[in-house]
Each structure stands twice: as structure tokens, then as C-alpha cells.
Amino acid sequence: MKSFSFTNAKKLLEYIQERDKETHIIFSNYKIIKEISENATPNMILCSTSGEFTEHGFSETSITGFSCKSNIINVVELSQIPSKGYVNLKNAYAKVADNPNAFMLLLCDGLAQREELMLTSLFCINDNFKIIGGSAGDSLEFKETYIYIGNRRVFSVALFFQMEQRTLLIKENIYKPMGKILSVSNAVPSVRKVNSFNNLPAALEFANQLGIEPECLPDYFMEHPIGQRIGNEIFIASPQAVNEDNSITFYRRVRSSVQMELLQPEDPFVSLANTKKSITFKPSFIFSVHCVLRSLKFKSENIWNKYSSKLLDLTKNQCGFVSYGEQYYKNHLNQTMVMLVVE
Fold first, then answer.
1. Rounded to whole angstroms, how far apart are CA atoms 158 and 156?
2. Same-domain check for residues 99 and 245
């Protein structure tokens, strides 16, 4: 797998014309993705972003992605009704199911709020099979995201990779528990809304646990998402908005009768150091997905360049994108970085 980055669509298309026997997975902002799609060939997969990660680090003006041999990848279109693509999905998975190094890259519509539905439909796939994914972005316009197979626009796509080298899937949080529990008393997962925590109106109890006035709560969402503990891991859900009835809408589903923990930031460079220590072989290629909220935090603190530099110490052969949500195995997450490492 070989990463690439370009400053304009013409240079990208020239690169691809010289490598027509390979498949190319491409990420850029929605305007450039639409431009590229007009001349895209079937061996190109396109996804719009809210930022890119290249061999030079974080960018908001780049075209990036990676190329691979076409015989190691199987492309499956996914529609808004997951059952429509089930047979193709099942057949593609069957080809890689016995390979511990295989993985799926799942690229989802970033605004339809159907990631959880898609993930729960993957019941033919073993829970331990590596799935990394991201929800397409549109540079914070929140109007329309774009995914293409060639010049054909699709809702979402699953890419199965038959790998010989060892692979490793990593999730990185830059938040830790505060020791405060928010028990979900009443939630409506289908619309990602929580009505009450600890049997009290959600926004009032959230603010109370933080020791702030309820009207100030939205100002604290970036620094204090909530997380569900599963085993030794924390899976983050980001608050989106306080509603008039003091319910809270989130960027992922939160279910009733689940205990969530209030989180607070920790040093992102300590988190990154731990991520790097968890890699047990020398990487030849890395693909990463970074939550847009995490990216906004890095921008506000002016640390993207430093973080990029330390991440690129692992290998310069890297690419990734800033997403509207992350997929890690069969979980949809927020404010997280997920990373696929290839030996």
C-alpha cells in the first residue's frame, strides 16, 4: 500500500492514469471530490472529508489517499437499506474471513445518522474481524457528503482487503474518566437523544455533575464528552445540542439503562506515546481516521503540527482523513482516532 498526496485534481488523475492496474482510495474536501468524480474510473473510490492527513501531516486543502493492488481488494456498495447489499457483503467477507490480517474499510454517509444501523446489520461478520471506518465530511457545511465508486455516487461502501502482512487496529482516546457517572434513565436511540440522566432532565444533571450553570453547558461539550466503559476501553459519545425540553442530542446513539462516564481531556501526546508503544512491529503503511471534533480541538490549541510530526515518526507512508464519526470494529464512535497499521 502506497500513500499519495496532491494539490489538485489534474495531478491526481495523471498519477492514476499511470497506475491503471491498481485501485485508489481518495480523500479530499467535497468540492474537489465532486470535481474528481467527473473523470473518475471504476478503480477509484472517493470520499469527502473535513480535513486530510498526509505524509506531510494535517491539511485542509490536500488530495490524499492510498493505492494498492486491485487483486487484494473487494468493493461492496452499501445502500440506506443494509439488506439490499447483504449477499455481496457476505460473499466478500467469506473470501477474507479466515485471514487474521484482513480488514474492512467502511466509508459511510456522514449526515444520514445511519452508522449504527449499518454496523448492526453486519451480523455475518465475526465480532473480532478488523473494521476501521469513517463517516464522510463536508468541511463543516453539514449539507451533503460524497462517496463515489468511480463516477457513480453511492450511499456508503465497504472495502475488504486481503492482506499478507500483519495488521493492527488501534483506537486512541485523548479523554479520561472524571469519576462521575451519568446513568441513562431514558433515551431515544433512533434519534440519538437522551431525555434524562440519573432520573433527572439530561441537561440539568449533566451541568450539575460538572458544577456549572445549565445555560453554559454547550460551551463545555468539547472538553467533556461522555464515554461508555466496555471491558478496559472507553467508547466516546459527543453531545451535539441541548434541546428546549432539556434533553441532549448526541452524535452517536446512547441507550437507556447504560452507565456513561463524564470525561475530561488528558495530554494528547501522552496518549500518542501509548499508541506508538502498542505497535508491536515496524509499520510500512498507516491509515488513520480523526474525528472532526478532535481536529477542532487540535486546531484551537495549535497542536496539529506537533501531533502530526510525532505520528509521522512511525512511517512517512501514511494517509487518513477527518471524519464526522469513526467506526472501530462494530462500534460507532466520536472524538476518537482510529488507526490501521500494516507491517
1. 7
2. no
Predicted TM-score (pTM) of this structure: 0.95
Q: Which of 217, 237, 263 is the last residue of a domain?
A: 263
Q: Please, are residues 287 and 339 in contact by the beta-carbon 8 Å criterion?
A: yes
Map grid coordinates 463515489 to a residue: 148
CA distance 68 to 51: 22
Q: In terms of residue numbers, what domain contains 91?
A: 2-171+269-342
Distance CA(111)–CA(150), nearest Å, equals: 21
Q: Total structural domains in the chain?
A: 2
Residue 95 to residues 15, 67, 84, 119, 122, Cα–Cα distance (Å): 30, 21, 19, 19, 15
Q: By the 8 A CB rule, do 324 and 240 touch?
A: no
* 26, 31, 37, 39 alpha-carbon torsion, rounded to 10°: -110
Q: Are residues 192 and 208 in the same domain?
A: yes
- pLDDT mean for each 10 residues of the chain (343 residues): 96 94 97 96 97 96 97 95 86 97 97 93 94 97 97 97 98 96 96 97 97 96 95 94 97 96 97 96 98 97 97 97 97 97 98
Domain boundary among 238, 263, 288: 263
